[in-house]
Write a structure and sequence with these properties.
The protein is of the alpha+beta class. Helix content is 39%, strand content 21%. Helix 1 packs across helix 6 and helix 15 crosses helix 18.
Length: 499
């Protein structure tokens, strides 16, 4: 038997097959067309392109795994969060989807804040109004594209459009729904108060399920398009962060992940909807029934290093080594603290803790004695400091942090592993395999189809630790001093970088 996980990302759709022990049998990714930006700050994608890419990835993974398709016994879905897929009465796409990174909705966010109130929004949805969320996008379309809005009869999130094409079901999961600003995160249902305040009809929204719940089955048309067997059950799955956390075993209170990809995410599982009154971290339902999570986000984590590499290059590559490995090797020649050089990683504004789309990045403390290696070291440390901001807020909220698991590019660099251990002042763990949200979606499919009795059992069996990295306590004390200096950068930059 095999379980299929599908992750509908921004750059592409990924499919992964695992067996009942959680071993990866095959994986494949098909790229999407680059997202369109008709105006500055806009970001749109064609949902039909997600379906095209998903079909190709599914067929590719089945072929690569050399499996009889009938051995696939369950399917789970994950994908980019916060997007607005608008459909008419026949299920056809009305306009391109406005995706997570679109920034056009500041006016609508302000209207929501003024109309409902910041405190009341957080009380109702556990989150403040942010430009990335789905609800402000719907309000923008209603205001600026009334002709299109009159055609809208259904609203879906990105992965759930692929679900519709697979099963014919209008459904989503509680974790993905949590990122819409339309969801009562505490009660795990659509918020009647928000719907009433905004005038949006409940029947526009999909049915909501827990992550392992079966939401439908593969139709004859979908079977023809993908090669999957008819009537294969499809579970709800989860938004990419929640499903990715399941894939890393972050399902019990006390378990926390720090993932450095393009952005950086600190994700903590909780057994209650823990709230930050200031809304500096997101509080969402987990893909695990009866659990929640809190999540802090750094906009430009791995992006900081990629930006430096793209703009300033690397050392001469004589051995075809990965250029990022070379940069980290350079940085490793410099001691902790980068000789007092600091990096504020606000290349794309910042979410946690500042909620400021206008924040600006800076390299502070340069002297003639600093080298490129110092700058790279400062970037690695600055990103870790930005993630420590989330841990600081977790401490204020009394969210337990008993174990930190690393993911993304920050987990592959031994230097960045050590820097994170020293900055957080706590042991960090890496995993034997990290296959992202698609892997977590496949585990949820296994739970929903009876391979495992619970998400906890699935993770205990399938997710294994590869290494543990302890902090150097002397260095950790020094990093705390530098973190205090780092925290002074944002208020200073806000005064001089923009008005």
């Amino acid at each position: 038997m095999a379980l299929l996980g599908i992750d509908v990302g921004t750059g592409g759709s990924r499919a992964i097959l695992i067996n009942e022990q959680g071993k990866v049998l095959a994986s494949a990714t098909e790229n999407h067309e680059p997202f369109a930006s008709p105006k500055t700050g806009w970001a749109e994608q064609a949902p039909e392109d997600w379906w095209r890419a998903s079909q190709i990835a599914i067929r590719s993974v089945l072929k690569q795994g050399a499996l009889d398709p009938d051995t696939v016994t369950g399917i789970g879905l994950s994908g980019q969060m916060h997007g607005a897929v608008l459909l008419d009465a026949s299920g056809s796409v009305v306009r391109p989807a406005i995706i997570w990174c679109d920034q056009r909705t500041q006016t609508q966010c302000q209207w929501l804040t003024d109309t409902i109130g910041t405190a009341r929004l957080i009380e109702l949805t556990s989150n403040p109004a942010l430009t990335g969320f789905t609800l402000p996008k719907l309000l923008w379309v209603r205001e600026h594209e009334p002709n299109e809005w009159t055609q809208v009869k259904r609203v879906l999130l990105p992965k759930d459009y692929v679900r519709l094409r697979l099963t014919g079901a209008y459904a989503t999961d509680v974790a993905d729904a949590s990122g819409t600003l339309l969801f009562d995160v505490s009660s795990r249902r659509w918020s009647p108060e928000i719907l009433d305040a905004t005038g949006l009809p409940l029947d526009h929204l999909p049915s909501v399920f827990e992550g392992p719940d079966v939401t439908g089955a593969i139709t004859a048309d979908a079977a023809s398009a993908t090669g999957l067997p008819v009537k294969t059950p499809v579970v709800a799955g989860g938004g990419d962060q929640a499903a990715g956390a399941v894939g890393m075993g972050i399902v019990q209170p006390g378990a926390v992940s720090a993932t450095i990809g393009t952005s950086g995410v600190v994700f903590a599982a909780t057994d209650r909807p823990a709230l930050d009154p200031e809304g500096r971290v997101h509080t969402f339902c987990h893909a695990v029934p009866n659990r929640w999570h809190v999540m802090g986000v750094t906009q430009a984590a791995g992006l900081s290093l990629r930006w430096f590499h793209n703009e300033f290059g690397t050392v001469k590559n004589d051995d075809d080594r990965d250029p990022y490995e070379q940069l980290c090797d350079e940085a490793a020649t410099i001691g902790a603290g980068a000789d007092d050089l600091l990096w504020a990683p606000y290349l794309m504004g910042e979410r946690t803790p500042h909620l400021d789309p206008n924040a600006r990045a800076a390299l502070v403390g340069l002297t003639v004695s600093h080298t490129r290696a110092h700058i790279v070291r400062a970037i690695l440390e600055g990103v870790a400091f930005s993630l420590r901001d989330s841990f600081t807020i977790f401490e204020e909220m009394k969210v337990p942090v008993q174990e930190i698991r690393l993911g993304g590019g920050g987990a592959r660099s031994t230097l960045w592993q050590q820097i994170q251990a020293d900055v957080y002042g706590q042991q960090v763990l890496t995993l034997t395999a990290e296959d992202g949200a698609a892997y977590g979606a496949a585990l949820l499919a296994g739970v929903g189809t009876g391979v495992w009795s619970s998400v906890d059992e699935a993770c205990n069996q399938a997710v294994t630790v590869a290494s543990r990295v302890d902090p150097d306590m002397t260095t950790a004390e020094r990093m705390t001093d530098h973190y205090i200096r780092y925290r002074s950068l944002y208020p200073a930059l806000k005064k001089v970088a923009y008005t």
